[in-house]
Specification:
The protein is α/β, with parallel strands linked by helices. 37% of the residues lie in helices and 16% in strands. It starts with a strand and ends with a helix.
């Protein structure tokens, strides 16, 4: 049987043995709920959650109290909308929300939904000739959504410069960073970036699905968006309540504990990876020589997106699939950037720590067969 070549890291990363082992060990030998017991086993789970939270904080340059566990980026982006919507800016007037054509559907659709209902207005940030956010032409916005790296273009944006430029136009702007793709390829420093919110999904860097991170710069100043067990300090007789301090304030219900158990080894393994730059460069140079292929991304991007003249991307995907070549085809839940590029969809190759240079050479050969 031919070896399966998995070149779809941007969709979801394969899991290191250390992550699988940690989760299995937790389920078999250490399982208990968190924040709900005083026995030694429950206390050990609380300590595990605390260590994981500190590891994430160190990973992105924040504080442990600023790290909220979610089910993923989509969950976090929708929750951020529900948090921000409760702030005074939404009651004082009809605010302007800045978005861009780099956005994933989950970064832009929740705001567009509010705009469709007359709750806010949408302003689209212009892109420059290289399809990066044009920092010099940012709109004046009350809320600004920043996709730190497009899952189609694979180019990191200068988040710190974008945040600074947005604040020059409106010092009170609320900045929200979608780092789902960026987190897999470059270090994040939320303190240096200065953003108000940031989120990413764990499965993009080798964690299990069902675990994500929502960073909140000033969590004590933000209202809760979900209610339930674990986040309540006291229910009062008059029907009001007091809540626990952040981050528990934002973590109603049982946490995804099994996934949290694999979080630290996933971060450690991902940090040890040197990145995909050499492999992507080799692949780029080879595909550039194939006449029917039009590459949409620059050579120094973190992934490669392309189209094939005269071939639908879904047909390409079918041909790749029967050759055991796993990659992504379609619009990548990123309609707007494809529209800006003038194509309906694209073919995306993304590389992870498990890929070897032999995988790249085999992919080049198989792609050559398909487009011949």
């Amino acid at each position: 049987m031919n070896k399966i070549i998995y070149l779809d890291a941007a969709a979801s990363a394969l899991k290191p043995d250390a992550v699988v082992d940690a989760e299995v060990d937790f389920l078999r030998h250490k399982y208990a709920n968190a924040g709900r017991g005083i026995c030694a086993r429950a206390a050990a789970v609380d300590q595990m959650v605390g260590r994981a939270r500190m590891a994430v904080a160190d990973f992105i340059g924040g504080g442990a109290h600023q790290i909220v566990f979610t089910s993923g980026t989509t969950d976090a982006m929708n929750r951020i909308v529900n948090i921000v919507r409760q702030l005074p800016v939404f009651s004082a007037r009809r605010p302007v929300v800045g978005v861009s054509d780099l956005d994933h559907h989950s970064a832009r659709m929740p705001w567009q939904h509010l705009a469709n209902g007359g709750v806010c207005d949408i302003a689209v940030c212009p892109l420059d000739a290289d399809f990066n956010i044009d920092v010099a032409q940012l709109p004046v916005a009350d809320v600004l959504v920043i996709t730190a790296m497009s899952n189609v273009m694979g180019v990191g944006q200068d988040v710190a410069a974008i945040v600074a430029a947005a604040r020059q136009k409106n010092p009170d702007v609320i900045t929200i960073v979608d780092a789902a793709q960026y987190v897999a390829h470059a270090p994040i420093d939320v303190a240096q970036w200065g953003c108000d919110f940031l989120c990413f999904s764990g499965h993009k860097i080798g964690m299990d699905t069902g675990i994500g991170v929502m960073y909140i710069k000033n969590p004590d100043a933000m209202p809760a968006d979900k209610f339930g067990g674990g986040m309540v300090n006291k229910i009062l007789a008059d029907g009001t309540w007091t809540l626990n301090a952040a981050p528990e304030k934002f973590e109603a219900g049982t946490l995804p504990l099994t996934q949290i158990a694999g979080l630290v080894p996933a971060i450690d393994a991902w940090r040890a990876w040197g990145g995909a730059h050499e492999q992507i460069g080799v692949l780029y140079d080879a595909l550039k020589q194939m006449p029917r292929i039009k590459i949409l991304t620059p050579r120094d991007a973190s992934l490669i997106s392309f189209v094939v003249d005269g071939m639908h991307v879904l047909d390409f995907g079918a041909h790749a699939g029967v050759r055991n070549l796993c990659l992504r085809v379609g619009n990548m839940c990123a309609t707007w950037i494809h529209r800006a590029l003038g194509v309906d969809g694209s073919i995306r190759i993304s590389v992870g720590p498990w890929n070897t240079m032999d995988d790249i050479h085999a992919a080049v050969r198989l792609i050559g067969e398909i487009v011949k």
